[in-house]
Amino acid sequence: MLQTAPEYIAQKIPSVFFRFSQEFGDAGFQAVLVGGAIRDIVLGDEPGDFDFATDAEPEQVMQLFPSVIPTGIQHGTVTVRFHKHSIEVTTYRVDGEYSDRRRPDSVSFTRSLADDLQRRDFTINALAIALPDCQVIDETGGLQDLDSRTIRAIGTPQQRFREDALRIWRALRFSARLGFNIEPATAAAMQEEAAGVRAIAAERIRDEWIKLLSGSYAGEAVLYAAQIRILDTVVPDILTDTDVLRPVCQGFETAPNPAAENPGALWEWRFATLLAIAVQKDQKRVNELHRFLNERRYSRRDVSVLLHTLRAILADVPETADIVPARRYLHCLQKADYLLVQHYRRLLGLPTASRKMCELLHTESDRGIAYSPADLAVNGTELARILDRPPGPWVGRCLSSLLQRIVDCPEDNTPGTLLAYAREWAGSF
């Protein structure tokens, strides 16, 4: 049931935005709330950022408030600092041609909210709320589409996707998040205009892809991306055969959420699993992914976590359910959740740990093992002092040797035992 009652809506909007809207009203202008927050409120979800649209032109907005940043003034957008909030305000406008398939070449300001809402991408994103009465304004049928759980492009779908092909990924992202169906004419236009996706800046696609993979219904959206042949823009050399992808994507929804201490977020586990399909355990191709991810402007942290998660998923599970193989396997996983690893290996059709091995993994992970030299009971400085040797590359080699011993025998991770091992190691050189 949609939440359109003014009383309900008023509770969801912080009071500062009522005061902000009143500033426009007192000056003879109109200012309404627009954007995804309206959709979220009507669906009963917690709203995100609140943005405003107004019939005041940017220069008039700048005269109304003492602190205004002209963030996108050429397209009618400014950011107003108001009671410690940064509020984005865009003048009602009609867009010109999109020659670069991203931004309009020109905009024309208008006094008509209806005209402004008609330029937006999907009906569910073209709702507005007038303050202070909290009435929902719907000029495109967005409420009906929210009720029927439908994603529908406004106007002619082909034109919308030609204006900005990123809207194809946005449609898939909303489908992944909300579980909505894509209206047939919109879906047909997405397939027809899919080639335009390849001209989009890599970081714009990356942002939509991360949000898509974070959605509760990501699996179906990934399959749809494969069907319209744009999945390879985010996953290199991915097989687009849905018979291969389907069991993996269907398993996305049944995977447990990563624990807070796990190095990878949900989207990273899902992405790493798709990358595993692409590389098919070819270590050379795993290494090539570093360049691919860098080219798509993923952060250094994201690249590290993705490749670590991928290697954890592809790591061979010990055939022998014994304590030493279990410890070595945990060390190989490097803090990746072994239960999540088994889930995604199962989706990929790879061998998984036996029940006995899982019991051993549970016991040993609870005990704690050394994953890196930083987990050892001695450090490089202490080694150099005790062994009376100047620091150098030998320190790293010695710590690595100690770490391998401690993986097999965690109980030996004490200063005395490690230093004895270190003297033995040093004596062999």
Automatic annotation (TrEMBL):
Swiss-Prot/TrEMBL keywords: Magnesium, Metal-binding, Nucleotide-binding, Nucleotidyltransferase, RNA-binding, Transferase, tRNA processing
Residue stretches making up the CCA-adding enzyme C-terminal domain: 274-421
Domain Poly A polymerase head intervals: 32-152
GO terms of molecular function: metal ion binding; nucleotide binding; nucleotidyltransferase activity; tRNA binding
Alphabetized Pfam families for the sequence: PolyA_pol, PolyA_pol_RNAbd, tRNA_NucTran2_2
Record flagged with keyword Nucleotidyltransferase: yes
Coiled-coil boundaries: none
BP term (GO), one: tRNA processing
Sequence ranges assigned to domain tRNA nucleotidyltransferase/poly(A) polymerase RNA and SrmB- binding in this UniProt record: 179-238
PANTHER family: CCA TRNA NUCLEOTIDYLTRANSFERASE 1, MITOCHONDRIAL
Names of required cofactors: Mg(2+)
The protein's name: tRNA nucleotidyltransferase/poly(A) polymerase
Record-stated family: Belongs to the tRNA nucleotidyltransferase/poly(A) polymerase family.
